[in-house]
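Archive maintenance. Older records in this collection stored only the sequence; we are now back-filling the structure field for every entry so that each record is complete. The fields below show one back-filled record exactly as it appears after the update. Entries are processed alphabetically, and DUF1361 domain-containing protein is next in the queue.

ARCHIVE ENTRY
Title: DUF1361 domain-containing protein
Organism field: Paenibacillus filicis
Length field: 239
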Amino acid sequence: MRSGKLKPYAIIAILLVFTVFCTGASMYLRFRTGTIVYQSWVWDIFLGWVPLTLSLILLEIAGRKRTLFSRFLLTAVGLAWFFFLPNASYLVTELIHVFRDFKPIPHTTFWLHTDFWLGLVVAFSTGLLGLMLFSLSLYIVHRIVSETLGEWYGWLGAGLVVGVSSIGIYIGRFIRWNSWDVISDPQAILRDLLEIVSDDRSRRFMLAFTLLILVVQTVMYLFFYAVAAMGSRQSFKSS
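Back-filled structure field:
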């Protein structure tokens, strides 16, 4: 399948519907619980769509005749995609707010509260949305690289991106840096990372968290890739 002929619009329509649900549910949680943290989910979901949008731009550019200008655009948009990609899977970490901000009634079991399950389901759905945005976005770029440079480079690039994205999610969640800070203040990010690496306890937590996210992203993407490959077959009928 040529990247220029790749038409992921049916999947995008499903993701849009899922996004409306997650956004609406998070706003309802904000209203129901009075917890302001749910308000930030709308912004985080928007950021999760940025890498997919950029990958669609890359798909459009890749489908056209290659010129010096188009190659420049591919490079510029590709770099922006690379730095914004962690924002998609970052949505998985929103699960922390369900346990951090839920206030159960004293002397009762929290798992029998409707608000707890409402928050958990919405947070899980938002995290799943992020992984789906991540997988589709990476799949599009993976196909572009594979068809331009070869399958080996495509898989090598995909593996590298998943690894860097896992570190980026840690940086965003625990150090609280944003994607655009890579350009505006890269030295501060490196300084904070060096401080973490130099501390034994912080380093072990960073490695454990990054590895967990790495596994989740890898499994999700491989599943997505396998389903996409299966769907590209012309027929399931035996000859």
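Update note: The chain has ten helices and no strands. Confidence is low (pLDDT under 50) at residues 234-239.
Entry marked complete.
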